[in-house]
Design goal:
- It is a single chain.
- The chain is elongated.
- With 490 residues, the protein is of the alpha/beta class.
- The longest helix has 18 residues, at 142-159.
- It has 15 helices and 24 strands.
- It has a 9-stranded mixed sheet, sandwiched between helices. It has a 9-stranded mixed sheet with strand order 16-15-17-18-14-19-20-22-23, with helices on both faces. A two-stranded antiparallel sheet has the order 1-2.
- The chain has helices at residues 17-21, 41-52, 69-76, 97-100, 105-119, 129-137, 142-159, 178-182, 254-257, 278-291, 305-308, 311-318, 334-348, 358-364, 370-386; strands at 9-10, 25-26, 30-35, 59-63, 91-95, 123-127, 163-168, 185-194, 197-207, 217-222, 225-229, 246-247, 262-263, 267-272, 296-300, 322-326, 352-356, 390-396, 417-426, 429-439, 443-445, 449-454, 457-463, 483-485.
- The model is unreliable at 234-243 and 467-490 (pLDDT under 50).
């Protein structure tokens, strides 16, 4: 027999936020929504209030600063979550400006108790609670008075079985105010400018009795309100490779070069200079899957994605056989992209994914610091392959002819397989060549083959003869057609 008390969790109505909390907001909890001005605290509170308020669970919204409720509603009604029918019926706005003007917290508490007793709400919001603390600080024993006020307020509201949210313009300094110790839950919102893009992030500092997802999580404010994109947390022990099955690339001789096709659940990096045919090869992989009844998804991040796609691929997208994740925003986050990819993959039951290209992807992720890009890419690849999806990525490389690189991000080690494309000069003509340089734990060809691009796509030709210095102009490099088993190192 268990003596544990069952605490009900309320769905917040903020997309992605309940998963962050571990199920929702605990009913009858005492919570703080903190952050600097402009971070979205009031929108956060209103969205949550309109989602939870109903005739059986009414909401009281106390405004301390004296801003007219009509002014707030004028702007909040632009969001899709706004429901005018709930105003006055299930949601009531009360101004505490006159009561709080002199810093008399006893008077403020008496007014709150009076309004709560008359309206019997299940939800109580106080905005801005920080201003009450500032008013109390000017009087004698301001700190102790504020602590006593918070304790009494929490006790009263809990006894009336109300879930409470205090909103305040607090910096990220949790040891300077008694409210942080008393609150059951603390949600901190922030915004910063990075590479000319606004980065909005959210952190659940604490939520008593629940296992929350730690760390900073990006969120976006749109017409639908706040959407949270939580950092992907992986259990790497459950991430397995599904390499028993091989997927055909749809290009003659390509499967042979890969040792029988691309192992299912693997990640493949196609690296090469501009115009070498990376997008053609990757989209052919999707088209072949569609022909075999295997849905796919393409995440397009090129500057002119519509021009870079073939008409056949566009037809497959229109037909619903291939899903398209495409954004022209320059303030995406890795977690937002992963969210859209996973949603599309799940909806289409896709098992093939193409990211074209990593170069455009990094530009789109202006909200992700450059030093975090590789770590973010690692999390995304591990998540997708952990789902059993086969991932093909393209990477733009400057062909220097003097060295051999696979990625400008040092991300070659993240992938299970690598195809490198190069330009060479043969008899005063520029020729294209490609080679498979890595397929983890699998036999594959080491042949360096010439190829052409025609109206039907890529046509792989004959193997080049042995030639010293062909790769990167380095002497004593011999190329042969022998097969070998890759140990995962390049």
């Amino acid at each position: 027999m268990s003596n544990k008390v069952n605490i009900r969790c309320l769905p917040t109505g903020l997309a992605g936020f309940d998963a962050l909390l571990g199920g929702g907001i605990p009913e009858f909890s005492f919570n703080l929504i903190a952050g600097q001005p402009g971070t979205g605290k009031t929108t956060f509170a209103h969205q949550l209030m309109f989602a939870l308020a109903n005739p059986d669970r009414r909401a009281l919204f106390f405004n301390v600063l004296g801003e007219p409720a009509l002014k707030m509603l004028r702007y909040q009604q632009r969001f899709n979550f706004f429901d005018v029918d709930k105003v006055d019926a299930s949601i009531r706005f009360v101004s505490l400006a006159d009561d709080a003007r002199d810093g008399d917290l006893d008077r403020v508490l008496a007014r709150i108790i009076k309004e709560v007793g008359a309206f019997s709400p299940g939800l109580v919001f106080v905005d801005s609670f920080r201003s009450l603390g500032r008013a109390a600080e000017h009087g004698p024993d301001g700190g102790s008075r504020l602590q006593l006020f918070v304790q009494q307020l929490g006790l009263q509201l809990t006894s009336w079985q109300a879930t409470t949210f205090l909103i305040g313009e607090y910096p990220f300094e949790l040891d300077t105010n008694p409210i942080f110790a008393i609150a059951d839950g603390i949600v901190w919102l922030s915004q910063n400018v990075h590479r000319s893009s606004m980065v909005r992030q959210m952190q659940v500092i604490k939520m008593r009795g629940q296992a929350t997802i730690p760390g900073l999580h990006n969120f976006r404010i749109s017409d639908d309100g706040i959407t949270v994109f939580s950092r992907t947390v992986l259990n790497f022990q459950n991430v397995t490779k599904l390499g028993n099955e091989r997927l055909t690339m749809g290009i003659p001789r390509m499967d042979e070069m890969l040792g029988g096709g691309l192992p299912s659940g693997y990640s493949l990096l196609i690296a090469g200079p501009s115009g070498s045919g990376k997008s053609i090869l990757s989209t052919k992989f999707l088209a072949e899957g569609a022909r075999l009844g295997e849905p796919g998804v393409i995440a397009a991040f090129e500057q002119s994605p519509a021009q870079s796609r073939s008409r056949k691929l566009d037809d497959l997208i229109v037909a619903g056989k291939i899903g398209l994740v495409e954004s022209h925003a320059l303030d995406l986050s890795i977690d937002e992209t992963v969210h859209d990819l996973v949603e599309m993959i799940t909806r289409m039951n896709a098992n093939r994914v193409v990211i074209d290209s990593l170069s455009g992807f990094e530009l789109a992720l202006a909200a992700t610091p450059r030093e975090e890009f590789r770590e973010s890419l690692y999390r995304m690849v591990r998540l997708l392959t952990g789902m059993g999806v086969t991932v093909v990525m393209t990477s733009e490389l400057e062909d220097r002819y003097t060295d051999l690189r696979f990625s400008p991000y040092g991300s070659a080690f993240l992938t299970d397989a690598i195809i490198v494309q190069r330009y060479i000069e043969v008899l005063s003509q520029v020729k294209r060549v490609m080679a498979v340089v890595k397929v983890r734990a699998s036999m594959h060809s080491r042949e360096l083959r010439m190829y052409e691009i025609d109206n039907d796509g890529i046509v792989i030709g004959k193997m080049l003869p042995e030639y010293e210095g062909l790769l990167g102009g380095r002497p004593n490099i011999k190329l042969s057609s022998q097969q070998h088993s890759d140990d995962g190192k390049t």
